Amino acid sequence: MNARERLIVGLDVPTLGEAEKIVSTLGDDILYYKIGYQLVFAGGLEFARELAQSGKKIFLDMKLLDIDNTIASGVENIVKMGMSMLTLHAYPKAMKAAVEAAKGSDLCLLGVTVLTSMDEQDLVAAGYEYDPHTLVLRRAEQALAAGMGGIVCSAEESSAVRKIVGPNMAIVTPGIRPAGSDKGDQKRVMTPADALKAGSSHLVVARPIVKAPDPKDAARAILAEMDAALG
Questions:
Q1: Rounded CA gap, 25 and 71, in Å?
Q2: Which of 5, 60, 144, 193 is deepest in the core (most CB within 10 A)?
Q3: Span 107-158, pLDDT tens digits
Q4: What pLDDT score was predicted for residue 214?
Q5: What is the pTM of this model?
Q6: Residue 188: what pLDDT?
Q7: 57 catalytic per annotation
Q8: Which phi and psi (to 5°) does residue 69 adopt?
Q9: Which ranges of the chain have pLDDT less than 50?
Q10: Which one from 56, 63, 211, 216 is the annotated catalytic residue?
Q11: Are the C-beta atoms of residues 72 and 97 closer than 8 Å to each other?
Q12: Residue 46 and residue 191: Cα distance in Å, rounded?
């Protein structure tokens, strides 16, 4: 895969109008878009379907977690929407239900390990007994066992995760920040080139592109950095 197939632009904006403007501005440079809660609750699901029908790849970031039947029913309908990637929390029962529901489709199911906005103190406060690194690796093992298409983790864990899941599973990395950019609310971040070298297969970039004075230039700079890292 080249950089264009690996870069996912996060449409983390509050309105469909803003999302449509970004997609129009970026044009053919960008193939993949992430749509999450913020845009979903502003009409983003139909927009996701329209983008997929136009030839774009859509990473639907819903982080599903529910009883098995509800997970399966949701995944079945998401398959019908033509989505390329879908996230769910990496709980073994939820992952197994999703894998069974998506069987035979092209939907890549991604297990969310530990959010990149969380550090060890956050996990302790939430009642977890593991530090972020240990919990990520445990969930990577469970995702592999469940037959998932990939996982979501910080680039800091990509190298260790790659050793667990092997060469074929996707490792999707949020918290990507070009050198010198603001970390925002992310606590575990890495540059695009370093993330690829660490083992990430896909990089999610939102604010450094969508909030840039010139989003197209920002996207092209990141693509160029990624292409250079890929050799």
A1: 35
A2: 60
A3: 999 999 888 788 889 988 988 888 888 888 999 999 999 999 999 998 888 9
A4: 96
A5: 0.92
A6: 52
A7: no
A8: -65, -40
A9: none
A10: 63
A11: yes
A12: 32
What is the identity of the amino acid at 63? Answer: K
Which two three-digit tokens encode residue 230?
A: 């890929």
The answer to whether the beta carbons of residues 160 and 138 sit under 8 Å apart is no
Q: Identify residue 187 by its one-letter amino acid code.
A: K
CA distance 71 to 94: 7
Selection from 151, 173, 178 nearest residue 164 by Cα: 151
**d(Cα 157, Cα 98) in Å, to the nearest integer?**
24
